Input
Amino acid sequence: MSHHAKALHLVFGVIGNGTGLFLFLSPSITFKRIITNRSTEQFSGIPYVMALLNCLLAAWYGLPFVSPNNYMVTAINGTGVVIESVYVLIFLVFAAKKEKGRTMALLFGILAIFSTVALVSVLAIKQENKRQLFCGLVASVFSIIMYASPLSIMIPNGFGCFLGAMQLILYCIYRKNNEDVKKATIDGSLEMGLANPQQAKNIQS
Output
């Protein structure tokens, strides 16, 4: 790598790390509110647990024996591991019992995933380029999942809106059909009554 390339690598690395640190610290306002109210309210712990997994995988990817010359990746994501761990710990302290259990289960799951990736990359993959490719792909996949994790709240609401709309449509359709049936029944009764004057007379009397 040339001198200019190293300089650019350093500059963009510093900028990237600064941006990453800002992103890691941005939920601090939310957690200040959680601590003040001593409740997680309607917040979900899923995004913070997934962010922790993303930081673990990215920090592992930046280690010299996995991906050479990416020590800044390990530095910022190692910092992210500490910050996200604090967020998850605070969430577990103030979360309701059901949400706490769900978050704990997910936390054990992501630790199992990270341990599996680390062991496979060290024990099963001997070639450095393949190890780097494997860890990079896994980190990229879970990075996408991390950014999609807030949809865990939006998706059920989206399905709810869809199902609610379907119910309204079905109600309108069957309501119209029901009115037509009632109208046809009334008209038929009237026609039958007109066809049988004696019965109509008895009804009137």
The chain has eight helices and no strands. The two ends are 108 Å apart (CA to CA). Residues 45 and 103 are 6 Å apart (CA to CA). The helical segments are 3-25, 28-37, 46-61, 71-94, 97-124, 128-148, 151-195, 197-204.
